[in-house]
Design the sequence.
C-alpha cells in the first residue's frame, strides 16, 4: 500500500521526483552551527552540484540546454524543500526568478545570449523588483529607466531611498547581473513598469560604477541566501538590455507593445511570475511534510504517563496530541493534490504557447490562493510540530527550529498572503480581466457597486444540506460550494449597499469579508482536488484510507468554521456537535496509520537527521 | 493620560519596575550575530552586573542579602523580558529555580550556607528535574538517591539513559552545583521524589568524579543560556545535601516528613515551583509587548497602496492589519492585569508564612492556567507581528526573529501548556486536594464517575444572556461565567456517562473537552482582572479608553468562540454577526490610540533597536 500511496502522491512527475530524491542523496547538508558566510559558500557550491547534475535546466527550452519541462521545474524546486531550504530558495532565485524572467520577458537574442549561461551557472543573477518603499504595491515602483536617444542607452536610476531595491536574493554576494524592474520613460512619456538586465558587479565581484550594494544581513532563517539591496546612480545600459517581449523601444525612442494599456501590460508581465508563487506553495508543503514526519515519528515512540497497567503511553495515543498533528496531516494530503493539479495546469497553460486568457486568469487566481493557504498551513503546522515535540523540538539537532525559521517568510515573499487573498477575491468579484490585478482596491468597490448585477446562480437549497451522513462526499462538496457562493453573494450585496460612500472606506470596511470569500473559494478547490485524487486511486484499500484522510480534512475544516455553518443555518447545533465527535473518532482511527501516511511523503531519510525521528 | 495608563499597568510594583527599566539602560545587548559561546560569555557578564546592582536579591530573605519581596522577584524577572531574553532566562534559572529551590525546599543551615552565595553569584547552580525520559511526568523520574547508613551519605545515580537530566540551564558551562530531583530510597523503602544539592563541577570547571556533563548545543533561541545534560554514576553526597524541609533522613536512615503520603508530599514540593510558572507568563507578556510596540510603530509609518487622492495609506489603516494586531494588543492588556493579580496573590500566599491550602491550590491552578494562556498568546502574537511587518519583520535587525525564537519554548518549559491546562481542569473537576496534581489522569475519570455528584449551582437563565448591549460589561461577565459553568457541567456529565469503561480511554476521549473547560475558566478570570483594573483607574478619560480596549478583548474572544455561543443558544445568528461588526468598529476606533497604548507598556526605547520602529 505504501507504494500505491507514494505513487499517487508523486503523481504526474513521479520519475522526476524519484530522480530528485536520488540527487538529494548526493548533496551535502550545511555543517551544524555554520555561520552566515560559510553557509552562503556552502549553498553556492551545492548549487553548482545541482547545475552539473542537470537539475537546473528542467524548465528551460531544450535548445538552451534545458529539458523543456515547465511544470517539472516547479516539481524540481519543490523537492529541494526536503533538503536545505536555503539551497531551494537560492535555486529558485537563480533559475526560477532571474532565469525565468529572462525566459518569460525576454526575446530571441536575449535567450540566445543568456539562458545557457544561467542554466550552467556561468551567470548568477538577481530578480530586483521589490523596493524598500514598495513591496506589495509593485505597480508603483519608483526606480526609473529613462531612454536617452542620443546614446541609445537606458539610464537606470534610484531617485530616492524608498526606491532602493530590497531583500534581493543573490544581490549581497554572488549576483553579477540583475533583472531590474523600473518605470520606463521614453521621450518624456511613462510606459509603466518594465524589466531591464543591469550588470551589477565586475568579474572580480566589486560593484559596477554607479551601483551601490548593501547586505540585508542576518535573517530569521534562509541565511545561506545572500539577500541584499541595490541602488543605481544614473547607471547606463544599452537599449538591448530591455527585456522586450511586452514592450519595445526603437532606436529613436518610440515605444511599442503587443499589449495595449499600461495596466494590462503590467499584469501580463506580472502573470509570468505565477510559477514563483506555485513553487513557494510546493516548497512550503515539502517543509511541512518533513516537520510532520519528524513529529509523528516522535509521537509514536515518545511515551509519557502510565496507563493503569503501568505501561507508559505513546504521546500520539493522546487525543490532544492527535488533534495537533492528524488534521494537519490530512490537510497536507489535500494541499498536495491541489498543488499537483495547479502544476499540471501551469504546465499546460504556460508550458506550451497557449494564449487562453481565461485559463491564465484562473491559474493566477488559483496560484495566489494556494500559495497563501499552503504557506499559512506550513507556518501553523511546523509551529504545532515544534510544540508537539516539547523541549526536544526546541533543539537545533531535531531540525524543527530550522524548518520554522526558514519557512517563516514564505507567507510574505512572492506576494504577501493577505494581499494575495484579496487578489483572489477580486478575481471572483469581477471576472473582468482589466480589474483582475487591481491590487490597490480602489475603483473596485465603486465598480462592484455600479456594474455588478449579481448573476442568478443555481443554488443548492439549504434544506438539502441539513441532513445525511457527515462522511458523505457529495454532501461535503455541496456544503463547501454553498459556503463559497453564499459568502461571495453576501460580499457583493454588502459592497453594493455601501457603494455610495468613499470607495476606499467601503472596500476596507469589508476586508475581513473579502479575505473570507477568497479563503472559502480556495477551500472548495482544494477539496475537489482531493476527491479527484481518490477517484484516480487504483487500489481499493488505499482509496479507503484516503477516504478517511479526506473526511478528517473536511470535518476539521468545518469544525474550524462551525460558527459560520451554525450562524447561517447550514448545521444544527446537534449536528455541529457530531462534527467534533467525528473529528475525534477519525483521529483515533487514523492514529495507527499515521506512520505510513508520513512515510508515503517520501522524505529521503538521509535528510531527516533529527535524533527524535530515528528508529 | 499616558502616565495614568503606565501607572495603572505598572501597578503595585511600579517603583521596582521603574528601577528595573533604569537598570536595563545599564545592561549591554549581545553583539549582533554573536556566536553561542560568546553569547554565553556575554550573558554571564551581564548576570554579574545584575547581581552587583542588587537585582538578584529581590525575592530572597533580608538576612541572606535580599529584599524579602517575593512577588517583586517575579516582577524583576518579567522586566528583564524587555531586554535579552537569554539573560532573563539565565537569571530565572540561577535565582528563581536554583536559588528558589534551596530557599523553598531547604532549611535553616542550608539557607545560611548557600543563599547569600547564590544571590551574589559566588555559586552558580542548576535545577535538575527534567529527565530525557520524563518531562511532564516528573513524578516518575528515574534518578535515585539511595541512603547509605554506613557512610552517612546519599548515592545519586542515573540508572539508565532515559534518567539522564536534560535541558538543564546552567549545566553545560557555568553551574557548579545542581539541585537534583531523585527518587529517595532509605533502607530499601522509596519515599518519592526529593531534591538534593549535588556538586557537579570542580572549581576549575571540570566535571566532578562520577558526573557526566553534555551540552544540549544549539537551540532555536535562548542560545545565551547553557543548557546541558547531567548523568550521575554513584555520586556520593553527605546527608546534609538533602533539601529537607519536606522530608528528612536521620543518621540511621529513618525517614520522616511533615507531609503525610508520598503523593501529597510530591505535590507540596512541586507547589513551590509556582513562582517559576508565573514568571514565565510575565516574561512572555514582556516579549509580546516589545513585539507589539515594534509592529504597531511600523504599521503607523509604513505606507502601501494609494487612496483615490493619491496619498499612500499607512498599513495600520487597513482593517485586516488592525485585526492582526489590535485584538492581540487588547488581550495583552487583559493578561497584564491578570498577571498583576496573580503576582499579588503569590506575594501574599508564599511571601508570608501563610499555610492556607485552599489559597495555595487556587494559586497553583491560576498560575498553570495563566502560564498556558499567556505563552500561547505570546507565540501567536509575536508570529502575527512578524508577518505584519512583512520582509522587514524577517530581518534580524528588526528584532522580531529573535523574539520569536527566544519565546517559542515558553509554551513548553515550566510545564507543557497542554499538561498545565489539564491540571487546571482537574482542579475544577474535583476541588479535592489529593487529586489536584494527579497529572497522569488515571483514577480521575473513575473518581468523577463514582463520586462527583455535581453540585447544584445557581445559574444565569439562558434568556438573560440573549439581549442587550454587546458592550455591557455585566452581560459580558455573565456570558463568560455561564460558558465556563456550562462547559464544566457538560464535561462532568460526559465523564460520568462514560465512567463504566476503561478509565484512561474515558478521560482521553474527552481531552478536548477537558482543555476547553480549563480555557474558559482562565478566560473568565482574566476578564474579571481587566474589569477590576478599570474600576481602580483614577482618571475618567483613561477608564473610557480602557473600556474600549476591554470590549475589544471580550468581543474578539467571543468571536473566536462564536461556534460555541451559537451552538448553545447563547447568541442568535443576528447577534453573532453584530459581534463581528463590533470588533471591526472597535478596531477602527482604537486605531488612532494604538500608539499610546503600546507606549504605556513602557518598553525602554534603548532596547528597541529595530530600524522599523524608530521615528
Sequence:
Amino acid at each position: 500500500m505504501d507504494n500505491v500511496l507514494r505513487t499517487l502522491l508523486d503523481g504526474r512527475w513521479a520519475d522526476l521526483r524519484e530522480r530528485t530524491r536520488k540527487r538529494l542523496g548526493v548533496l551535502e547538508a550545511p555543517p551544524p552551527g555554520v555561520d552566515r558566510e560559510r553557509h552562503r559558500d556552502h549553498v553556492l557550491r551545492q548549487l553548482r552540484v545541482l547545475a552539473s547534475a542537470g537539475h537546473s535546466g528542467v524548465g528551460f527550452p531544450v535548445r538552451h540546454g534545458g529539458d523543456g519541462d515547465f511544470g517539472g521545474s516547479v516539481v524540481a524546486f519543490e523537492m529541494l524543500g526536503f533538503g536545505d531550504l536555503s539551497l531551494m530558495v537560492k535555486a529558485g532565485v537563480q533559475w526560477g526568478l532571474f532565469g525565468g524572467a529572462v525566459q518569460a520577458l525576454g526575446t530571441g537574442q536575449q535567450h540566445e545570449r543568456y539562458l545557457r549561461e544561467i542554466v550552467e551557472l556561468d551567470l548568477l543573477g538577481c530578480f530586483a523588483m521589490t523596493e524598500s518603499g514598495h513591496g506589495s504595491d509593485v505597480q508603483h515602483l519608483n526606480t526609473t529607466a529613462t531612454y536617452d536617444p542620443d546614446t541609445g542607452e537606458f539610464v537606470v536610476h534610484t531617485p530616492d531611498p524608498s526606491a532602493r531595491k530590497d531583500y534581493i536574493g543573490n544581490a549581497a554576494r554572488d549576483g553579477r547581473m540583475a533583472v531590474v524592474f523600473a518605470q520606463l520613460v521614453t521621450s518624456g512619456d511613462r510606459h509603466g513598469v518594465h524589466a531591464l538586465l543591469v550588470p551589477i558587479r565586475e568579474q572580480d565581484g566589486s560593484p559596477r560604477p554607479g551601483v551601490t550594494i548593501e547586505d540585508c544581513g542576518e535573517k530569521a532563517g534562509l541565511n545561506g541566501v545572500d539577500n541584499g539591496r541595490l541602488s543605481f546612480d544614473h547607471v547606463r545600459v544599452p537599449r538591448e538590455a530591455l527585456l522586450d517581449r511586452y514592450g519595445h523601444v526603437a532606436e529613436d525612442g518610440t515605444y511599442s507593445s503587443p499589449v495595449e494599456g499600461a495596466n494590462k501590460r503590467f499584469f501580463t508581465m506580472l502573470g509570468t511570475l505565477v510559477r514563483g508563487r506555485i513553487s513557494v506553495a510546493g516548497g512550503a508543503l515539502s517543509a511541512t511534510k518533513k516537520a510532520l514526519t519528524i513529529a509523528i515519528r516522535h509521537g509514536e515512540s515518545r511515551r509519557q504517563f502510565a496507563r493503569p497497567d503501568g505501561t507508559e503511553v505513546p504521546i500520539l495515543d493522546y487525543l490532544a496530541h492527535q488533534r495537533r498533528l492528524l488534521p494537519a496531516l490530512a490537510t497536507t494530503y489535500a494541499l498536495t493534490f491541489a498543488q499537483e493539479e495547479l502544476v499540471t495546469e501551469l504546465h499546460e497553460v504556460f508550458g506550451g504557447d497557449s494564449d487562453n486568457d481565461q485559463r491564465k486568469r484562473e491559474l493566477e487566481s488559483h496560484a495566489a490562493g494556494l500559495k497563501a493557504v499552503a504557506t499559512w498551513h506550513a507556518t501553523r503546522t511546523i509551529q504545532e510540530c515544534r510544540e508537539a515535540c516539547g523541549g526536544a523540538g526546541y533543539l537545533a539537532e531535531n531540525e524543527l527550529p530550522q524548518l520554522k525559521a526558514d519557512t517563516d517568510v514564505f507567507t510574505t515573499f512572492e506576494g504577501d498572503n493577505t494581499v494575495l487573498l484579496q487578489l483572489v477575491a477580486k478575481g471572483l468579484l469581477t471576472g473582468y480581466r482589466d480589474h483582475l490585478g487591481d491590487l490597490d482596491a480602489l475603483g473596485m468597490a465603486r465598480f462592484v457597486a455600479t456594474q455588478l448585477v449579481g448573476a442568478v446562480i443555481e443554488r443548492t437549497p439549504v434544506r438539502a444540506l441539513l441532513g445525511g451522513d457527515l462522511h458523505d462526499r457529495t454532501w461535503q462538496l455541496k456544503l463547501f460550494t454553498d459556503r463559497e457562493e453564499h459568502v461571495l453573494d453576501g460580499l457583493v450585496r454588502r459592497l453594493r449597499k455601501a457603494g455610495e460612500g468613499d470607495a476606499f472606506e467601503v472596500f476596507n470596511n469589508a476586508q475581513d469579508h473579502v479575505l473570507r470569500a477568497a479563503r472559502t473559494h480556495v477551500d472548495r478547490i482544494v477539496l475537489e482536488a482531493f476527491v479527484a485524487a481518490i477517484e484516480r486511486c487504483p487500489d481499493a484499500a488505499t482509496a479507503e484510507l484516503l477516504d478517511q484522510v479526506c473526511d478528517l480534512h473536511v470535518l476539521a475544516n468545518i469544525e474550524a468554521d462551525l460558527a459560520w455553518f451554525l450562524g447561517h443555518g447550514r448545521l444544527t447545533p446537534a449536528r455541529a456537535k457530531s462534527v467534533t465527535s467525528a473529528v475525534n473518532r477519525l483521529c483515533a482511527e487514523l492514529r495507527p496509520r499515521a506512520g505510513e501516511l508520513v512515510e508515503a511523503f517520501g522524505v529521503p531519510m538521509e535528510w531527516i537527521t533529527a535524533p527524535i525521528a530515528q528508529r
In short: Residues 432-440, 449-458 of chain A have pLDDT under 50 and may be disordered.
